[in-house]
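Chapter review: from sequence to fold.
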Amino acid sequence: MKLSSLPVRNLFTFLLSLTLSISSWASYSPLPDRICDGLPQVAVGTMPSLCVGLVLNRSDSVPLKKPRKALELSEENALLVTDMGGWEKDRGSLWILTFDPKHPYSKLLNARRILTGLNLPHDIKYGPNGSIYLGEAHQISRLSLEKGSVSKQEIVVADLPYAEDGYLHPLTNMVFLANGDLLVNVGSRSDNCDVRKSSDECKELTETGLRLYRYQSDKHRWDQDYQVYATGLRNSMALAVHESGTILQAENSSDFPDHDEPYEEINIIEEGGFYGWPFCLNRQLDVADTGHCQSEVYIEPYSLMPPHVAPLDMIYYQGKRLPQLAGKLLVSWHGFRVAGNRLVSYEVDDKGRPILSDQPVFYRDPIPPATEWTTHPFNSEGGMKREAQHQEVISHWNKVPGVRPEGAPVGLLELKDGTLLIVDDKNKALLRLSEGQAYTEKQSFSVVSEKKSRQVAPELPLLKKYCAACHLELRTSPELLLNREGGWLRKEKGKSVLEQRLRARVRFMPPQGRLSESVQQAILGEAESM
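The token string follows.
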């Protein structure tokens, strides 16, 4: 289906790439007799001479719910970890995890919540003078720590646009510019701003969303009278500033129910720039024929990324511990399983811009019952130019029953020792990438048992209609999702996970609109027929 022919108003708005899957979370199981730089190694495939070690899984002592980013307190041998606690207001927390200095990140001594009742906490990083800054959906605060506890919390940016209901991209992400100014993501309220054919209305463009705010610095205080630095950006969850001054943004594009379109973007942010969303996707593809893509202020993507990979963080690796990554741009691809669920790197020029290629390709995971990875050339609707070719740092991260869960990387943090910490929100885990013997996939790691036990599936017309755009297994192997052990039909507090998500107060599924009671009942009955 062509993007230009899709009924934009009725498109699905959140895919699995935004962590709204109703699949169960799973723990990482260490490989027998395999150690990755002092940590238990997990069965995640990497480039040669790198491995992934397990720092921690969710447990009774560390009951993480939705961890997003981390910050290292190197002198205290500790990590601060933001935990959203879900998508409802005021359920988030900030953890401090303290480790034995003789066993870096392998022996946890203590885990405590040092802030609770936070409003969708996401970003945390060091700012000017080494101060710690925490981003919640509605504000940014500066924290002072004393003996592992918060001694002072000072609000430095207040009243960020946020509404508890109906705000689809509320998370705060931020970067500091060289002069100390603060650049803050303000995500869109919707998936497509209700843009219709032959309409150029989008109130968010003139009100609050789709943009980056700039707060000017004055001796480590920020003028609350912000400036709109750039617009037409749906959700800038991945931002990075190069030492040359280049500002890069990785765009989570619209969630069309088509795994081939649209492509994600890498943008070079310029003050006053308009980057097209929701009208312009890919390269000047005008989804509503509005003329915005021919505007003088429109800046098209510097490069495209594969469709639906959902970039949620990016950093320039500055360490020496992992020479394969030296000086490269690292991006966490959180999303849509056929091309996402990866950690990738880009070679960059002296301005921090990814090197462009004439014939870039990307790779897709097998969707059961298929077992082969496939290679695909970039072929976006709207045309192609030279695009940046990524390298897969972590590649084999698809779900393999009994081997590993499907990866969901969010926050990336270069640790003081030069290794890389990765926060996995869906599986509620912290992982570390370091040097060591790489895990390699074996032919036996295919879903043979699932394939052999598969029964002839019912038609499942409602589940396919409302859910299969995000959950492709419903078209091929519905039993992988619809089971009572760890799938949608497992019971929690007397109700199946599927029923809870259909009827949730916020973040209900499917996200394009709450279904009537009769349709919900019909879907539940259909699922139970499996």
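Two observations follow directly from the output. The first helix runs from residue 448 to 453. The chain has five helices and 35 strands.
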